[in-house]
Amino acid sequence: MKKSLFVIVACCFMVFAGSFALAQQDDSNKLSVFHAGSLSKAMADIGKAFTAETGTPVALTGSGSGSLRQRIEKGERPGVFASADMENPAVLASQGLADAPVPFTRNVLCVLAKKSVGITQANLVAKLTDPSVKLGTSTPVLDPGGDYAWKMFDMADALKPGAAAALKAKAIKLVGDPALAMPPMEYPRSQIAWHIEEGRADVFLVYLTTARLAVAELPGLEIIELPKALTVGAQYGLTVVAGANPEAAQFKAFVLGPKGQAILDGYGFQKP
What we know:
Layout (H helix, E strand, L loop, with lengths): L1 H27 L2 E6 L3 H15 L3 E6 L1 H9 L6 E4 L3 H8 L7 E13 L9 H6 L5 E4 L5 H13 L6 H8 L1 E4 L15 H7 L5 E5 H10 L3 E5 L7 E8 L5 H11 L1 H9 L6
Parallel strand pairs: 1-2, 1-3, 5-6, 5-7
Antiparallel strand pairs: 3-9, 4-7, 4-8, 4-9
Helix pairs in contact: 2-11, 3-4, 6-7
């Protein structure tokens, strides 16, 4: 009896070990792509289209571009890094950890707000600096979205002296820092819409593409484009990480090609 039990256990272990090894093998066959969180939906579609065309499966990791750059610096090696700025991949290139980045799409910062706040282009700075208005942003350094917001704050000083200091002091950093993030399955909505719905922010400085998704998810929100004096654009950079397999260069070419660009265009991203 004991011998039979041992045989059964041993067989189960062998099956489990074989399945685990197969899973590892399957993972190793996937092209790892690190990408800015704002690209999540577009990259999911790009990954599927790329796999359908080439047969190469893709493993996607989305987060703040600054935090992803730090992970690469600490030793992780995806095949491709798609950043929401040119600076983070350029830093990796300067360290010999990646190729020189190429621009592959653009975005623009905007204001996403509850309609009840009553923001217009004319009163935008006054409303944002109002102590009663909760202003949400991404996290500077860890996420270019936060860096772009801080740039806009500095530009606001020309319209209202002291605005930059007031905005930086009151900004609530709600996204972009992996330490603050919850697993995606815990969000009933996208992170931005969820934070607003939960009352953590009345207004968010976000990418236009992100704002459009949030408006579609949550009634009562509106998008206010920044006036010309406060307009902040975002150029996204794509790089192949050092030591990557040939599939990484193929993925880069796919993103830059007509099919990849059409998918980005469908989500409201702009031509590079």
